[in-house]
Amino acid sequence: MRCANVGTFFLACPMPSNTLPEPAADVPESAADTVFHGIVQGLAQQRFVPGQRLVEVDLAAQFGVSRASVREALQRLAAEGLVDLFRNKGAAIRTLSARETLEVLDVAERMTGLLARSAARAVAAGAPRAPIEDALARLHEADRGQGQDAFASARRALYRALLSTSGSRELRRLLPTIHMPIVYAQHRPAALQRIRMRDYRAMCEAVLQGDEDAADAAGMQHVRNVREAIEAAIASDLGQARR
């Protein structure tokens, strides 16, 4: 089973713990999976950046796989819109225009609300709260100073917990196609993590209370807040470019 490209939006609760079990992570099942997920995670960790050329021989050496596996992974990444393939010129991480960025956020807003609503509905119906609570606690720990890599990993674990709790096959299929990894790799406003943690807490409370409407609203509001921060950063960049 291919693991989902997850990791954008979620919450944190002040639940200190250094004894929580490590959240179950999806394990790549092929060499192409290793490259695929390595590049997706590398975007979150700033090891890959939008516009960067991807050279087959370099990726093969980096991930310890064959060039055929690299080509398979690049084809999959291109199919999901994360990579652009150029005839006789190789591949590059996709770069989004300002308009494309805002279009991605439009879709993410609706889907994040739906994911939160679906998870809250499942909790209200008796689904276990512990996977989400544990993932939230780990995210909170990462936010308290373990670095960007730890935060990105914890966020992906929370995404998995919410998806698993929701039980929705359609969400599991659709969410990885949203190009939020590119958006977050390309736009990193200084206020973004503060916005995330504040919003994650609000959505956390609603989901764990099984309040579908509040969870939906909190999820959508989070992406609106992210959009506002990114729009401000884009406007600032344009203003500086004109000077």
Explain what the structure shows:
The chain is 64% helix and 4% strand. It has 243 residues and is mainly alpha-helical. It has two domains: 31-93, Arc Repressor Mutant, subunit A; 98-242, Four Helix Bundle (Hemerythrin (Met), subunit A), CATH 1.20.120. It has a three-stranded antiparallel sheet with strand order 1-3-2.
- H/I helix tally: 10
Number of strands: 3
CATH architecture group name of the largest domain:
Up-down Bundle
* Mean pLDDT across every amino acid position: 84
Helix and strand sequence: HEHHEEHHHHHHH
The shape is: globular
Number of domain modules: 2
Range of strand content:
under 5%
**Contiguous runs where pLDDT drops below 50 for at least 5 residues:** 1-26
CATH topology tier name of the largest domain: Four Helix Bundle (Hemerythrin (Met), subunit A)
Radius of gyration: 18 Å
In whole angstroms, how far apart are the ends?
51 Å
Pfam family, one: FCD
Protein name: Transcriptional regulator, GntR family
InterPro entries: GntR_C, TF_FadR/GntR_C, Tscrpt_reg_HTH_GntR, WH-like_DNA-bd_sf, WH_DNA-bd_sf
GO molecular function: DNA binding; DNA-binding transcription factor activity
In short:
The protein is mostly helical. The protein is built from ten helices and three strands; from the N terminus they run H-E-H-H-E-E-H-H-H-H-H-H-H.
